[in-house]
Amino acid sequence: MASRDPSKEPPDAGQELSPDLGAAITPKSAEPHPTGEIKYNGFTQFTRMLLFVTWFNACCVNIHITQMFGAPLYFFNKDWYHAYMAITKQSFALLITTITQWFSPTVIRVSGDKTVRGQIRQSKDGRLETHFPERLIMIANHQLYTDFIYLWWIAYTNRMHGHMYIILKESLKWVPFIGPGMMFYGFVFMARNWTKDKPRLKHRLEQLKGQHNGPLSGSQALDPMWLMIFPEGTNLSANTRKGSAKWAAKQGINDLQHQLLPRSTGFHFCLQELKGTVDWVYDCTTAYEGIPRGGYGQDYFTLRSTYFQGRPPKSVNLYWRRFPVSSIPVDDVKAFEQWVNKVWLEKEDLLEYYAQNGRFPDADEGQDLSKGADAPKGAGFIKTEVRLAHWYESGSIFIFLAVYALIANILAKVWNLAIYGTMMGAAVTAAT
C-alpha cells in the first residue's frame, strides 16, 4: 500500500485551526433504508417521540438540578465534589443507555486483537463485560453522531461511566441544561482555533492529572480517567468527505475510502500533557451494518429513523486494540504523524475487511466467545446488546433529587411545628 500521511493538519487562511477532536453535524435522511420499511405508523411514531422527549428532558433537567445542588461542595471539600459530579455523570450514561435499550435496540458485536486478550468478556446472562484500565486515552473513527453513545456504554460495562471525558465543539456548550451539565462534567470545548483552544485544553488536561481521596477515586494514585478523542474531528458525511479529498489532493496523498483523514495535533498534545500519567491508548474501529459502500451513516440513521421509526442499524460493530504509550513516538512530531497514519491505514484495512465479510476479525479467527462461562478466555467475537445490568438502575438517576425533596419536606414540617405548633402550617392554624 502506498505511503500516506493523513495526520497532517490542513492550513487555513487567516487563523490557525484547532484540532477538531470530536464534532458532529446534523444528519440528513436518505432512501432506500438499509433496515427496510418503517416499522411504526405515524401515531406510534408520535407516541414514541413524546415518550423519548419526556424521558430525555426529565432526566437532563433532573441531572442538572442535582449538579446545581452539589456545586457548593467545591468550596468545602473537593474530593466529595468530584465524587458527586462523577455520580451525576453516571446518571447521564444511564440515560443514554436506557434510550438506546428502549427506543433503539440493536445487535452489538465486539471483537478485538490479541492486545486486549482477556479484557473483553460476556456474562452468563449475555451482558458485555470489559476489563480495561482505570486510566486510558480512547481514540476512534467517527462514523455517526451516535458513536459516543456506544463508547460511553463500553465505559458502563467497565464501571467507568462516571469517569468519561470527551472533547467537543464549543457550540454544544450553549445547549440548555446539557451544555452546563457537560461543563460540570469537565468536558473540553474546542472553538477550532488552536491559539484559543491550546491553553484551554492544557488547563483541562492538568486537572485530569489530579488526585482525590473521596469516593469513586479509583484504586490507583491518580483519578480514574477515560479521555475520548475522535482524531478525524467530525463524522463521515458527503461534505466532510469533500474536505478530506481536497486536503489529500493538495498534499499529494491518497484519501481514505471508509474514514476521513485524521488530525494529529490535538491528540499529540493530549499525549504530551498526560505523559507519565497514562499507560495505554485504546483504539476502537466502529462500523454500522447496512451502510452501502460509498454511503454515509448519517444519511440513513437519523434521529427520527433510529429512535422513532424503529429503524436503527441492524448491528453496531466494535473492534478493539490497545497500544502502550511507551511505544508511541510522542517526543517526535514527524514520527508521531507517521504513527497516526499507520494506525488509520490499519483501521482502513479493518473496515474493508468488514465491508467484505460483514464483521470484524477476532483475535482467534473462528472462535466465538458468545457462550459465557463455557467460552475460552480471551478477546474474541461477542454478540450482545446495549442494556442496563439491572432494571432499577434507571431509578438512581432521580435518587439525589428525591432525597433533597424528602429532606425539604421534613424541614418544612419541623419549621411549621416550631412556629405554628402544627406540621400543617399557618393555613391550618388560621382555620382553627
Give the C-alpha Rg.
24 Å
The major pleated sheet works out as: 8 strands, mixed
Distance between the termini: 91 Å
Overall body shape: globular
Task: Write up this protein.
The chain is an alpha/beta fold and 432 residues long. The protein is 39% helix and 13% strand. The chain has 11 helices and 10 strands. It has helices at 42-70, 78-103, 147-157, 178-184, 194-207, 238-251, 265-273, 303-308, 333-357, 399-420, 426-431; strands at residues 107-112, 120-122, 128-130, 135-140, 164-169, 188-190, 225-229, 280-288, 315-324, 382-385. The strands form 2 sheets. Strands 6-5-7-4-8-9-1-10 form an 8-stranded mixed beta sheet. A hairpin with a 5-residue loop joins strand 2 (120-122) and strand 3. Helix 1 crosses helix 4 (178-184). The chain is globular and about 85 Å long.
Main features:
432 residues; alpha/beta; eight-stranded mixed β-sheet; two-stranded antiparallel ribbon; 11 helices; 39% helix
Short description:
The protein has 432 residues and is an alpha/beta fold.
SSE layout and pairing:
Elements: H1 42-70, H2 78-103, E1 107-112, E2 120-122, E3 128-130, E4 135-140, H3 147-157, E5 164-169, H4 178-184, E6 188-190, H5 194-207, E7 225-229, H6 238-251, H7 265-273, E8 280-288, H8 303-308, E9 315-324, H9 333-357, E10 382-385, H10 399-420, H11 426-431
Parallel strand pairs: 1-9, 4-7, 4-8, 5-6, 5-7
Antiparallel strand pairs: 1-10, 2-3, 8-9
Helix pairs in contact: 1-2, 1-4, 2-3, 5-7
